[in-house]
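stage 2 :: seqdesign
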């Protein structure tokens, strides 16, 4: 095998391994999988309405990745909560929640896409009854989930149990809903493919230049 073939093959293997890890190839959730998730939520005394709402989301699974859009209004004076120090700020409480969430996200090829503070109040609202309350947000975030299967694996994971209270205490209000993208230029499979292609081509050209004595 020539050095050039080894170079390009190595890049192809790296990319293939990443895509295999980053993509859920198992397809939509089966009825048996959904039933098991529902049983687990019920055993944890999850609100029946919440469980039924999630079940509908799972029954309509497409098997694709999705992004969770989050509007966040961080609390000015969050309450003291068990497991945290008295007087902790909303950011500190949210940090406690995320320090347990990040490992569960990352090992399942899920991760933050965007996070930032609001630059101003909502500039456009249509059909909102309580417009004053819904106009004010402090932060926004977007998270990528490999699939609805992955999402539920995180939701029912025992290590997350109890940590959600930190998030609730950190927020005055929030809205979060999933979208399946039709255009997503930030997809890591696209970005990594472009980076590997560029680096491999550069290394290949440098190798050829050295061989020709240029």
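stage 2 :: out
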């Amino acid at each position: 095998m020539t050095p050039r073939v080894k170079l390009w093959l190595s890049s192809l293997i790296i990319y293939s391994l990443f895509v295999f890890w980053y993509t859920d190839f198992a397809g939509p959730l089966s009825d048996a999988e959904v039933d098991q998730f529902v049983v687990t939520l019920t055993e944890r005394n999850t609100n029946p309405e919440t469980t039924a709402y999630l079940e509908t989301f799972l029954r309509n699974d497409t098997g694709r990745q999705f992004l969770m859009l989050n509007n966040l209004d961080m609390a000015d004076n969050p309450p003291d909560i068990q497991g945290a120090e008295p007087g902790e700020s909303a950011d500190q409480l949210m940090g406690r929640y995320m320090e347990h969430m990040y490992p569960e996200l990352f090992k399942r090829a899920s991760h933050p896409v965007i996070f930032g503070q609001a630059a101003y109040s909502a500039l456009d609202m249509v059909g909102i009854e309580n417009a004053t309350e819904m106009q004010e947000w402090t932060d926004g975030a977007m998270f990528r989930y490999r699939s609805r299967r992955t999402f539920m694996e995180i939701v029912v994971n025992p290590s997350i149990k109890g940590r959600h209270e930190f998030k609730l205490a950190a927020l005055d209000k929030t809205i979060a809903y999933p979208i399946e993208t039709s255009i997503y230029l930030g997809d890591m499979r696209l970005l990594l493919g472009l980076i590997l292609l560029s680096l491999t081509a550069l290394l290949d050209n440098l190798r050829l230049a050295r061989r020709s004595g240029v």
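stage 3 :: structure notes
- The longest helix spans residues 188-212.
- The first strand starts at residue 66 and ends at 74.
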